[in-house]
UniProtKB/TrEMBL annotation:
It catalyses: D-fructose 6-phosphate + L-glutamine = D-glucosamine 6-phosphate + L-glutamate. The gene is glmS. The active site is at residue 360. It is found in: Cytoplasm. This is Glutamine--fructose-6-phosphate aminotransferase [isomerizing]. One of its GO terms (cellular component) is cytosol. Keywords: Aminotransferase, Cytoplasm, Glutamine amidotransferase, Repeat, Transferase. The chain holds residues 252 to 616 of 616 of the full protein.
Length: 365
């Protein structure tokens, strides 16, 4: 049921104030300044002996995994790697004995992800699921895991499942950090910041009309660039995927600094660039990359932090997000990009919920 929404995708984008909360519900302990993830079915001693983490999935889930790599390394200092599930199943990656593998899948039925799960288990690694569908094959076959509790996602373009996955990966980072080196004070600060996220999401959603105008302005583009650094590099990939999937505009995501290594050749007055440039440790670096694009007359749409006046001077259009710590910014920056893709596709008259050539769950290899 779409309720008052014209499309499932829009409804699911709006549900994120709730679904992010649902991903955390009952899982945060102020008393111990950490997260509680009983579904992992691992003792603290077992979790402490984890030497390496592998995150795998397809499409949007692989982008959430890439954000998770940055988050887990930042919060827990555990070496983390991401591999596409389709590559993992054939790659035969050498892994230390104490590796922990997470397979991430909204549907829990993606063929490549399921095959990665089975291959990982065959090699003897503890393999956990991050799934939304509790009745799915991946949920059943994994050695434990964390459910998203996001409710059904009907729109083919994954939206709320991405922010749920990133929230859960943050809880995993917090848990692993707290049993290693992280202080109580730091743990509590992270809990406060996590709990503040849903209200910040609501503030972003209020800007839908502003985002719609930007979408209309650039909907004639034949190609778009999405650029970000650090935690927001995977968000650039995700923003580009959303745009391609539902509006059929060619889009590509890159780490901002890779521009000068080739991508900049594509920049011209009719190729807009979306820069994900919140107030983080690499903000100034992003601004230099924006200047490089401006010098080639490329239009700039920036996703930036409220109150940043510098960004307005170098951008044609800006969408603001509330301030937050660097590692949580992907949850916020991904939302304007979902809305940008949505409004662009609607402007172009595309079937947003059922884009051509795509199925919600890819159960063939
Ligand atoms: O159900 P899953 O999370 O395993 O699905 C993985 C991908 O097929 C999925 O994220 C796909 O990329 C979406 N259409 C992206 O919007």
């Amino acid at each position: 049921n779409k309720g008052d929404f014209p499309h499932y995708m829009l409804k699911e984008i709006y549900e994120q104030t709730e679904t992010i909360q649902d991903a955390m519900r009952g899982r945060l302990s102020r008393e111990e300044a950490t997260s509680k993830l009983g579904g992992l079915e691992m003792t603290n001693a077992e979790l402490r002996s984890v030497e390496r983490i592998i995150l795998t999935g397809c499409g949007t889930a692989s982008h959430a995994a890439m954000v998770g790599e940055y988050i887990i390394e930042e919060l827990a200092h555990v070496p983390t790697e991401v591999e596409f599930a389709s590559e993992f199943r054939y790659r035969n990656m050498p892994l230390p004995k104490d590796s922990l593998v997470f397979v991430i899948s909204q549907s829990g039925e993606t063929a490549d992800t399921l095959a990665a799960l089975r291959e990982s288990q065959r090699k003897g690694h503890r393999t956990l699921g991050v799934c939304n569908n509790v009745a799915s094959t991946i949920a059943r076959e994994s050695d434990g895991g964390v459910y998203m509790h996001a409710g059904p996602e009907i729109g083919v373009a994954a939206t709320k499942s991405f922010t749920s996955q990133v929230t859960i990966l943050t809880l995993i980072g917090l848990l692993l950090g707290r049993i290693r080196h992280m202080s109580t004070t730091e743990g509590l600060r992270i809990i406060d910041e996590l709990e503040a996220i849903p209200a910040k999401v609501a503030k972003i959603l209020e800007q839908t009309d502003h985002i719609k105008k930007i979408a209309e302005k650039y909907s004639g583009a034949h190609s778009m660039m999405f650029l970000g650094r650090q935690f927001n590099y995977p968000v650039a990939l995700e923003g580009a995927l959303k745009m391609k999937e539902i509006s059929y505009i060619h889009a590509s995501g890159h780490p901002s600094a890779e521009l000068k290594h080739g991508v900049i050749a594509l920049i011209s007055a009719d190729v807009p660039s979306v820069f994900i440039a919140p107030d983080d440790s690499v903000f100034e670096k992003n601004v230099s990359n924006i200047e490089e694009v401006r010098a080639r007359k490329g239009p700039i749409i920036s996703i930036a932090t409220e109150g940043n006046t510098k960004i307005e001077k170098v951008s044609d259009d800006v969408i603001f997000i509330p301030p937050c710590p660097d590692f949580l910014s992907p949850i916020l920056t991904s939302i304007p990009l979902q809305l940008l893709a949505y409004h662009t596709a609607v402007t172009l008259g595309c079937d947003v919920d059922k884009p051509r050539n795509l199925a919600k769950s890819v159960t063939v290899e």
